[in-house]
Amino acid sequence: MLTPLSFSLLRQLSDGAFHSGEDLAASVGLTRARVSQLLKQAETAGLALERVRGRGYRLLATPDFLEAEPLRQALRELDVEVMPGDAKAPLLPAANDDDLALPAAQIPLIPTRPALSVEVVDQVDSTSSELLRRASRRDIHGALLAAEWQTAGRGRRGRIWTAVAGGSLTFSLGWRYEHGAGYLAGLSLAVGVAVIRALEAEGLDGVELKWPNDLIYRHLKVGGILVELNGDSLGPSTVVVGVGLNVRLPASMKRDIAQPISDLTAVAGRGAPPIDRNQLLARLVAELAETLATYGEHGFAPFAAEWQRRHAYQGKQVRLLLPDGASVKGTVAGVDSTGALVLADGPRRARFLAGEISLRRA
Ligand code: BTN
């Protein structure tokens, strides 16, 4: 568990130099023993520290901590409209008593391309849970929340999402649509396309999709997408898109996580410069915002062909493990406009909304 004080210590250590326990303790107003305890917890969270008697502590790999203002600046350079740092999200029309009296024709329309509000926090339970909580009262259309550390990161199908402070990207973007759930069914797949486009724009080539929206590199998972939706079936809807990416994972974590995983540093390849997480996050958010806007206008159609081209299992013989434990075999024919996986078995075609695919040996 990392606390705000741990982050204050880590930020001091992010220069890569040695800092004595005494200096660190004085800077945060704690005892040396407490500093040592907090730094032990940071190690458990995946940060590699060196302790040398007489010299103090130093971070072996110095994280480039996420920072809101450079992120806003990088987004503006990518032509994204961003709200000033101190702007507060407006109350939802329905949460604002005056608006309840407005005739329907005067209720403001949801803008297709809202200005983004950008917030970076050291720690939160889950960026998606936090935006979902806020959504009941505030307008989260265009709200970006990125966190260095999630204490209860969530994956698909109730799984835990594990990340490492300073070595991952975990963020969520809120959006509103006039449409209902049916129209938005393919949205999570479109988000997968957006993430890969952003990675490629930053020179990270070779990441592919695995239905429905895992991000894989050489069949190892490097990231995941969680799209959560609230609203009436006919609309409007509020969507929270959560993205988690492994940027630099310590080897110990690669071993500990049950699934076979990799990170974007492996994608970049040996000798490549370290990945700038603020820059990568800006690119991801810019691409994601554009994709969410395009989806609102045209649905999944503009993404379907590209999604299939980027699907690592397209045309492959697979086994699909269904949520009830049964499994089916077939050849991946593609996805339909709702994001369902289409499997071919001879002339027969069947569509599936959920499950886990794995390659079948020939
Ligand atoms: C998956 O299971 O593959 C989806 C993982 C999604 C993780 C991201 S990290 C940011 C956001 N907050 C969460 O708690 N989950 C998503």
Tell me about this structure.
The protein has helices spanning 4-13, 21-28, 32-44, 68-77, 97-100, 127-134, 187-201, 251-256, 264-268, 277-298, 301-309; strands spanning 49-52, 56-59, 117-124, 143-150, 168-177, 208-210, 214-217, 220-231, 237-246, 317-321, 327-335, 341-345, 348-352, 356-359. The protein has 362 residues and is of the alpha+beta class. The protein is globular, with a radius of gyration of 22 Å. It has eleven helices and 14 strands. The protein has a seven-stranded mixed sheet with strand order 3-4-5-9-8-7-6, with helices on both faces. Strands 13-12-11-10-14 form a five-stranded antiparallel sheet. It has a two-stranded antiparallel sheet with strand order 1-2. α2 packs across α3 (32-44). It has three domains: 4-59, Arc Repressor Mutant, subunit A; 68-309, BirA Bifunctional Protein, domain 2 (2-Layer Sandwich); 313-359, SH3 type barrels (Roll), CATH 2.30.30.100. The longest helix has 22 residues, at 277-298. The structure holds biotin (BTN).
